[in-house]
Amino acid sequence: MLKLTRFWILVVSLLSCCQLAEAQQFRVYTKVSRIGSDLPDDKPEVIARSKSLFHAGKVYDFVQAAGEVSIFEPAHQRFIVFSSRHMLTTTVTFDEINRLLDSARDETRSYAARLKEQNTRDAQQVEPLLFLLTPKFEESYDETSRRLKLTSPRFVYAVECGDAEIPEATNAYLAYTDWAARLNYVLHPQALYPEPRLRLNQALRTHQHIPARVELQVSLGRPVHLQAEHRFDWSLLADDRQDINLWESLLKKADMKEVSFREYQRAVIVGTAQAKR
Questions:
Q1: In terms of Cα–Cα distance, which of 165, 172, 161, 146 is closest to 233?
Q2: What strands, in cross-sheet order, belong to the sheet with 155-162?
Q3: Are 70 and 61 in contact (CB under 8 A)?
Q4: CA dihedral in degrees (145, 148, 149, 150; nearest 10)?
Q5: 106: phi then psi, degrees, rounded to nearest 5
Q6: Residue 128's closest CA among 114, 112, 110?
Q7: Measured between alpha carbons, how far is 269 from 274 in angstroms, rounded to an integer?
Q8: CA-CA distance, 32 to 46, in Å (whole number)?
Q9: Chain center to CA of 81
Q10: For residue 1, what are the CA distances in angstroms to 96, 98, 102, 198?
Q11: pLDDT tens digits along 124-150
C-alpha cells in the first residue's frame, strides 16, 4: 500500500511539474483579512499578504511580514523553505509532509476516541475534530454568477470564481495550493488540517476555475471569519525576476545555515510566536 501511495505521489508530482512548465510564468498576489463585528467600522483587518511567482517549473512564495520564502519544486518532490531574517533554511520532501500528516491524523483520532470515552463536555469536540479529517460539504455552484459554495454546519467556503488567461495555469495553481495547504499544516502548529482546502480545490478543479475571492467561516470553538483576495497577473514583473534572483542567491550564501525541518520550525515558527507574546 505504501509503495502504491508513493507511486501516485510521484505521478501527481510529475503532472504538477508539467503543468507548471506549460503554464509558463504568472504571479498571484494574496491578501488575507479577518472579518468581524468587533473591528472598527466593521472594516476587514488585513492579517497577511503574500505573492506567489510561478517560474521555470517552480513556485516561489513570499510572505513579507514573516520574511519567509518557500520554493515548491514538484520535479524534486520537495519544498525548500528559508527565513532571510534568521538565515536558516530547510528542505522538506513530499514523503515527509505526508508522514507528518499521517502521524497527526493518528494522534487526532486517538485523542477523539479518548474524549468520546470520557462522556464529558469535552466530548462535544469529537465531531468537529473528525470533520476536519474527512470533511463532507454540500456543494452548490451558480454558473451565471460563477459563485461556488461548500457548506457544512461548522465550516463554510464561499468563492467568487475567475478564469485563467492561460488554460494550464488553473491546474498548475491548484496543484501548488494542494501541497501548500499540506505544508502549512505541518509547519505552523495552529493551522487547520489541509483536508477542507483540498476539498475546495477539488471543486474548483471540477469547474476549471481559479479563486478570485474566498470567504471562510469556521465555528470550531471561537468563530473565525476570513477573506482571501487573489489577484492573478499573467506575466512576471521585472521586480519579480529580481526577487527570484535574490532568493536563489541568498540560499547559496555561506552564512545561510541548513537545518532539519523540526529545527527550523522550533527556531523560526515557534520562536517567533513566543517572541510576540
A1: 165
A2: 138-142, 147-151, 155-162, 210-220, 222-233, 26-34, 45-55, 58-63, 68-73, 78-83, 88-93, 257-258
A3: yes
A4: 170
A5: -60, -45
A6: 112
A7: 9
A8: 6
A9: 14
A10: 17, 14, 14, 22
A11: 677 777 888 899 999 999 999 999 999
The answer to whether 269 touches 183, Cβ cutoff 8 Å, is no
**pLDDT tens per residue, range 158-182:** 999 999 998 789 999 999 999 999 9
Instruction: Decide: 146 and 180 in contact? Cβ < 8 Å.
Output: no
216 in Cβ contact with 232 (< 8 Å)? no
0.90 exceeded by pTM: no
| Closest by CA position to 25, among listed 49, 52, 45 | 52
Let me know the angle formed at the C-alpha of 126 by 122 and 131, rounded to the nearest 5 degrees: 145
Q: Which residue has the cell 525548500?
A: 80
Tell me the C-alpha distance between 233 and 29, whole Å: 8
Determine the length of the chain. 277
